[in-house]
Amino acid sequence: MIDIHKLNAFVAVVEESNISRAAVRLNMQQPPLTRIIKSLEDELDTQLLKRLPRGVEATEAGKALYQEAVTILAHAQAIPKRVQNISKGLEGQINIGFTNSVGLHSFLPALLRNFRENFPAVSIHLEEDASSSLIDSIINEKNDIVFLRKPAPINLGLKSLHVLDEPLIVALPSNHPLALQGDVIHLLDLEPYDFVLYRRLAGQDLFDNILACCYQAGFSPRIVQEAPRLTSSLNLIAAGIGLSIVPEAIRNFWNKQIVYKALQADTTCIAPIYAVYQQDTENVRLKHILNLLD
Question: Residue 258: how many CA atoms within 13 Å on its side-chain side?
């Protein structure tokens, strides 16, 4: 392996086209510099410089070495700064996971935009998955932080930070009998009607939360069809197959065949969002995300 100090000396000689001037530039005597160049030529077993009456000139092989050396030296010069930036969380990658329903809330793009503005050199990797898989991704350190609809189980030793509470609302086909009522519908008024929900496997936390609200109101929802994604359920609602209880952010997915109503219940019906991450972490980029959540 070629000594980087030899490459630095060779670059100086080529750029100055004169060993004496290169020695001054390097703050050293000419004889040691001449020995360095000779040592480099011996090491590569090729002539790198042509001696001219008033200086030196790189040979074809010397020009090739010069191009490589400039790249290597520039990279070496950048290493300390990059290492410092990594240690400060100013470079690298942050891995963020979220469930389908969380990904629809405006807080997530706002958080990502804020992070990008403050840490532009950090790349952001996103992953959407079911909550159980996202919990595993934190345990296995595949993701740095995930956003779920409920806190992580206590026995896993993970940290759960409450981010916000999102109200649940009613989504109705536009021709539904309740669509012409006021802007607020009581939860118990939904009991006689067919429900459309998205599969528990895809969104266990939200699914269980919706069922719990119905049970507390005194009825079990009549689920006639399930959808693979929360957004997919909108197509079923628009088709008149049933109504659904959805997070308020779904209002952003406007559809002429769907009417949204506020939900009134004796107990609060909300869909909370939690940030889940490793409790004892030295990940500085993660700490930057957490600071933005405060």
Answer: 24
